[in-house]
From TrEMBL:
It comes from the Bacteria. PANTHER family: DNA-BINDING PROTEIN, PROTEIN, PUTATIVE-RELATED. This is PPC domain-containing protein. Gene3D superfamilies: Hypothetical protein, similar to alpha- acetolactate decarboxylase, domain 2. InterPro entries: PPC_dom. Residues 1-129 form the PPC domain.
Amino acid sequence: MKPLPLRLLPGDDLRAALQRVLQAQGCQAAFVLSGIGSLSQTRLRLAGADDFLAIDGEVEILTLAGSLSPDGVHLHMSVADATGRVVGGHVTAGCKVRTTAEVLLALLPSWQFAREFDAATGYAELRIGPRD
């Protein structure tokens, strides 16, 4: 495992930026171990929902975790607004960094992750294997 600390910049799309980092590292498997920071725009898909919850305005990232593969990212996050209200869910495209996002990745150079449709769940789920 190779740790990779990152700082994402204002305006970065959280999902897209992490996907680019994985590609730039030439890695096929990684986990997000931790993430904090702030967002100016948040898009979360809540449990069982078909559409996403849009939060436009400043929030703090309390937790961020997930897996990264060449097929895509799977991230979950909890955020808090200025009143302290906390909401969490599946990170979708459109989460824009406000001031910073400090993320710790664990690159797994001996492994490869892929996303494959799983008939049992109805979703593209993580497939784990040794790297060729």
